[in-house]
Amino acid sequence: MWLPFLGLLFGLALGLLTNIQIPSVYENYLSIAVLAALDTLFGGIRAQLQHVYDDKVFVSGFFFNILLAAGLAFLGVYLGIDLYLAAIFAFGVRLFQNIAIIRRILLNRLDEKRHKKNKTSIE
Amino acid sequence: MKMNKRTSNKGSFLSRKQFELLIVCIATGFMIGYSYNQAKSTRSTVDTTLFEKEESYREELIVQQERNKELSEEVTALQKKIRKYEKSFVANEKEYEKLGEDAENMRLLLGELKGEGKGIRVTLRDGDYNPTAANPNDYIVHESHVFKLLNELKIAGAQAITINGQRIVANSYIRCNGPVITIDGTQHPAPFVIEAVGESATLTASLNMDGGVIDQLVNENIVVSLEENQHLIMPKVNMKS
Questions:
Q1: With a threshold of 0.80, does the pTM exceed it?
Q2: 3-class SS of residue B173
Q3: CB contact under 8 A, B32 and A4
Q4: Which chain A residue is nearest to residue B7, measuring alpha carbons?
Q5: How many separate domains does chain A show?
Q6: From the CA of A53, how many Å to the nearest CA of chain B?
Q7: How confident is the model at residue B7 (pLDDT cuts 50, 70, 90)?
Q8: Where are the domains of chain B?
């Protein structure tokens, strides 16, 4: 249960400690990659909560989304069109949807628990 | 949750699923941390550079404004000075003109310039031989006569004077040397032709005064002839030691 969180913290620490500077041209790619990663992560959590989690889908989605987003941004730079906005838009919408679903599921569970408690207390 | 249960049920510490999840989480964490770092560094650098730039520009502006103030003060001071100069210049202009004229006159007097212009010519001749007079000194021209004449001419405003064509300047000397007179080392016999540039009317009038120079000279048996000349030319003095 805590291993992914430990991994997240480890990655965070690693990212904070690395002091490599990337050119400002590629900062767009980075932001899109972060968005894609977050989207996939929350998607995974949602799938887990909805009992439809598949680790293959999760991992492949993670890397494929990142690559797709980066590729789109790359193409956008070369075509002179802000294509990365599409990726940002898509990932943003999905991020909000995922989080909303997670929130509802958690609220439902909380309600169920309370009902159970009430039932037990009444009994 | 279920996954964890399942994996733990399988018994291995690090199942494939967990490993994948770990990798994904590490990657996500790394990216977030890295971008945070990046954003922080750029933000801080941008902020500091902007701030420093603003500060430096402000300081520059202050320096420039101070300099402007100094310069404008200098300008007003200089303008004041100029006005003062102009006022004094206006006051002194006439004086300067007079000084210029004086300088011209001085040069003429020194013989540095060629004297040229209207003037008079006075010829002093020895008196005719008079056997009744015992002393020939009584009827020849002495240097004192020449002095008198020169003095009178100078008083009357002669600007340049020559004797027998030799220019008389400020430091000229005239000596009696027997029958001749020596002017600046050059001997001149009678008759003496004295030319003077100046207002000929004034010069003539001053020479012809009753009891004036010509009267005195004539009294001393000297033949004086005076003529006005419209155009006298006097040579420059060769600067001799």
A1: no
A2: coil
A3: no
A4: A1
A5: 1
A6: 8
A7: very low
A8: 1-7+15-84, 111-234
CATH assignment of B111-234, among 3.90.79.10, 3.30.70.1880, 3.30.830.10, 3.30.420.270: 3.30.70.1880
The 10s digit of each residue's pLDDT in B65-86 is 999 999 999 999 999 999 999 8
Q: Give the tens place of pLDDT for each residue, B216-240.
A: 888 887 888 888 877 878 777 765 4
Domain of residue A118 covers 21-122
pLDDT tens by residue, B19-33: 877 888 888 888 888
Q: Which residue of B has its CA nearest to A66?
A: B28
Distances from the Cα of A91 to the Cαs of A42, A98, B161, in angstroms?
11, 10, 117
Tell me if A41 and B25 make a contact (CB, 8 A cut-off). yes
Contact B126, B220 (CB under 8 A): no
Residue A52 lies in a domain: yes
Residue B115, strand partner residues: B234
Residue A111 lies in a domain: yes
Comparing alpha-carbon positions, the chain A residue that sits nearest to B14 is A3
Q: Where are the beta strands (DSSP E) in chain B?
A: 115-125, 160-163, 166-168, 174-177, 180-183, 186-188, 192-197, 223-234
